[in-house]
Amino acid sequence: MRGQQERIGPLFSYVSAEERIPKVLPLRQVRRLADQALHRLNPTFCKLYPEAGRPSIPPEQLLLTLLLQAI
User: Fold this and answer.
1) Beta-carbon neighbour count of residue 49 at 10 Å?
2) pLDDT tens digits along 12-71
3) 4 in any annotated domain
């Protein structure tokens, strides 16, 4: 079963990550491009995972992590 990617809000901070990160940071554009590419791959990911079973780590989350490590 394919897990769902959840973007959680602030845990112990009153200032969100969006407010802390500068608007001109190049990683913001990389994130937008990566999100667009992963959105197009969503149907392929859905076909690869069965409906039943334990939820996995979402493939989008794994790929974004690898991309960040590569950068």
Assistant:
1) 14
2) 667 777 788 888 989 889 999 999 999 999 999 989 888 888 888 889 999 999 999 998
3) no
Q: Tell me how many domains the chain contains.
A: 1
In-domain check, residue 3: no
Beta carbons of 9 and 50 less than 8 angstroms apart: no
Half-sphere exposure of 71 (CA within 13 A, CB side): 11
Report the C-alpha gap between 22 and 28 in whole angstroms: 9
Q: DSSP class of residue 55?
A: -
Torsion sign across C-alpha atoms 17, 4, 11, 64: negative
Read off the pTM. Answer: 0.69
Residues shown for the chain? 71
Q: List Cβ neighbours of 4 (8 Å cut-off, separation of 6 or more).
A: 55, 58
